[in-house]
Amino acid sequence: MQKSQLILSAEQLAPPPPIAGQLLSSKSDYIAQCLSQSLAAHPELEALIGEGNFDLMESYHRHHIHNLSAISELFDAKSFVENTIWDLRTHLARGFQPQYWSTMFPEAENYILSELDTQLSQYVAAMYEWLIDNLDHLVPLCSEEISFYEALSPLKE
After folding, report:
1. Which residue range(s) make up the domain with 96?
2. Rounded-to-integer distance, Cα 79 and Cα 97, Å
């Protein structure tokens, strides 16, 4: 699937009300900490994230939850897709395996849903379901093309 098709697909998501992002932001550090503690107990964690990448994983969880709260506050499908591709590309290059996100996304979704009320959580749940459903399309894009952010960089090749 091409990036443009993924963006069109993400445009079908109902934009969360800004309050969802604001509430998520206020709880993001706690959720990221819970997520990291939970995944630390995974029996195959090192195989999922690469040797010596525990601190990077913890940092990624904070970044991921903070970023999701910002995207929830000002939802834009293109930014959602581009940011996801950049996140995956960056962490795959550091030794994370695609199966990591198959484990992490549902776990993160569960923690977020436990912290948001039912009415707001449906929007975030839809974004996670989209991520989970499209992971097999997102991962190949990471190796096929640079991210939007990399294209803007003066450091690109």
Report:
1. 3-152
2. 23
Whether 120 contacts 19, CB under 8 Å: yes
CATH number at residue 89: 1.10.490.10
Q: Which residue has the tokens 């450091």?
A: 155
pLDDT band at 157 (very low <50, low <70, confident <90, very high): low
Encoded amino acid at 157, one letter: E
Q: How many CB atoms lie within 10 A of CB 10?
A: 20
Q: Which residue has the tokens 């509430």?
A: 23
Cβ pair 39, 148 in contact under 8 A: no
The model carries a pTM of: 0.89
Give mean pLDDT, residues 47-65: 96
Give the CA angle between residues 119, 12, 126 to the nearest 5°: 35
75 near 19, Cβ under 8 Å?
Answer: no
